[in-house]
Amino acid sequence: MTSQTTTQADRYAQSTAAFAKARALMPGGVSSPVRAYKAVGREPVTVRCGKGAIVTDIDGQEYIDYVLSYGPLILGHAEESVLAAISKAAGRGASFGMPTEAETQLAQVVVDAVPSVEVVRFVNSGTEAVMSAIRLARGATGKPKIVKCTGCYHGHSDGLLVQAGSGATTLGVPSSPGVPEAITSNTLLIPYNDLDAVRSVFKEHANQIACLVVEPIAGNMGCIPPAPGYLQGLRDLCDEFDVLLMFDEVMTGFRVAYGGAQALYGITPDLTCLGKVIGGGLPCAAYGGREDLMRQVSPDGPIYQAGTLSGNPLAMAAGLATLESLQEDGVYEQLEASSATLEAGLRDAASTAGVPIYLTRVGSMLGLFFSDSPITNYEQALACNTDRFAAFFNSMLDNGIILAPAQYEAWFVSTAHDETAIKKTLDAAALGFAAAIV
Ligand code: KE4
Fold this sequence. Notes:
By secondary structure, the chain is an alpha/beta fold. Helix content is 38%, strand content 16%. The protein folds into 2 domains: 3-65 and 329-435, Alpha-Beta Complex (Aspartate Aminotransferase, domain 1); 80-326, Type I PLP-dependent aspartate aminotransferase-like (Major domain) (Aspartate Aminotransferase, domain 2, 3-Layer(aba) Sandwich), CATH 3.40.640.
């Protein structure tokens, strides 16, 4: 029996029935594992629709949404200008497999916005963006190895499904069946926020490392900002050891600032991966960077990468409408103000309930850790009290607030999260922290 009482079971009756059907047909009943709610000990709600900051489940219950599709919906659900752009594009045809002006328009917006991007290629997911950018880094440098941080997630391509294995140099070993060790042996793992570890692995594998890929703000072990000087240190060490620096800004791009984390912190990588916000909720991602590197991508150069639906006109339209809205004066200031109010209120509510938390925030991206000590890397994140997180999550859901169902995800705020939504969230959080004292 799940953690729901009988009346709660009635509240979620349609979702429960729908999830049973889904489970019969799809692994875990979902199209992506985190959505199955395994980490919080209950069945997920099935969503009927969304509008602004609210999603409504098929039982008719409304929730203030901090998942926002794990980041893309920075303007909230079903935003009018995005809907209109998608509808207009759809009326002209869904896909052509031929150049369209919309791709060039969105490419121009990305190149103008993101400091490192001189040339850009659109793909369909963040996984595809990072996988392709790594192939480019290896092809351009002729070096086989890559370096990533434990706790950072860059999609599910084989070489990135690794965990620290045995061996002094933290050689990557597969974190999933089906991934050959021959592939993960080229992936080297280091802790996040540790420049000594970077220097050490660069020295040990000198001349073998094509790139270091990193989330400039880690968003897949909760939200963990870079330590002061960390990103500059990465830039300096990559220059010293002739390693390409790749920022995975799939989550942070256009989220924490219009130019992403690289604009916010003033550090320019050699390659950048984007996703989520640039598609406005439709499947769209991209990789880009220095022109001398990107011109090596097919058909300009020999490094192959392709995609039937890459640059899809509907996704381009949704992305263009979204990024155009983000160019308006005051948008990021509004996101900053509402997110800061949420942060302060969460701190107060946890303090009142006597629950130790470690709360992080960069712009409209937050991390709430049930921990009485700071969280700066994956090892520390793993030590969090996930039972308290689950209790908090379930209480929030039952009180009309829907969060990502795992301690190791971030909260996202949209321009649609107004004062009323934030206040309702904080009222629910007071109950949630009281429930979390387990
Ligand atoms: P996708 O392949 O899911 O579009 O992107 C992979 C990816 C790459 N890089 C970063 C920094 C990411 O955050 C992601 C995907 N983020 C997760 C959220 N933790 C997507 C949610 C999911 O897997 O369902």
